[in-house]
Amino acid sequence: MPDHRLQNFPFLSQEEFAEGCVRLEKKLKGAVGFGDVGLSHEGGVVCGLVVRREVLGGICAGGDGVGVGGDEDGDSEGKVQSEEEAEDDESLPKARSKSTWKVEYHLHLSRTYQLPILYFNLYPPSQSFSSSTAPATLTQVYEILTTATSRDTLRSVGVQGAISQTDHPTLGVPYYFVHPCGTAAAMGEWRRLGESGGVDAHEDFDAEKYLAVWVGVVGGVVGFFLPSGCYGILREV
Predict the structure, then answer these.
(1) How far is CA 40 from the centre of its chain?
(2) How many angstroms separate the CA atoms of 223 and 237, rounded?
């Protein structure tokens, strides 16, 4: 059997990263309702993974991020407000109607850090997935893709915050990205916890499992989560 063990954990070679992307793509393609998933290529070689999804945003002023549950009318259907309740409501922030935003995630390997980096752009409901389309502002990114409890913490990371904008490594147009400065430490902590539970991470931690953990560590910051059907990858670690 081929040896899929990572040679320099928590760092990845381009070959290991490409292998992980190929295997994870197959899992995600089989997930119902997850979104459009595909591989990106450079010079005929796999260089990343692309996921396009629609997310529910604009729940209310300063909303709590993506995918907050409830139908369009929430739980208010059939309730009759008293005069006092109506007056109280007037002092609250005006709720905005829910709208479907579009988010495009690109997983690439940093040649500098030898770690995956998550690039992404968020597009307003009226826009389409396109490099020529103006993406959402950073303020909108924080409001739509992050939770209220994590927002201030993310903004306080480093000088510019955990989320910044730069040119996409292959497309050459501006994309947001989650800075990888804490990735190695976070992945190392996952490995330490696994080993304390009796798991030999060096033996069992291949590129696909690495990326599955990494999505949970980094992707969740901006609303990118694996579908429940992929959790089995982690149980094998």
Answers:
(1) 17
(2) 23
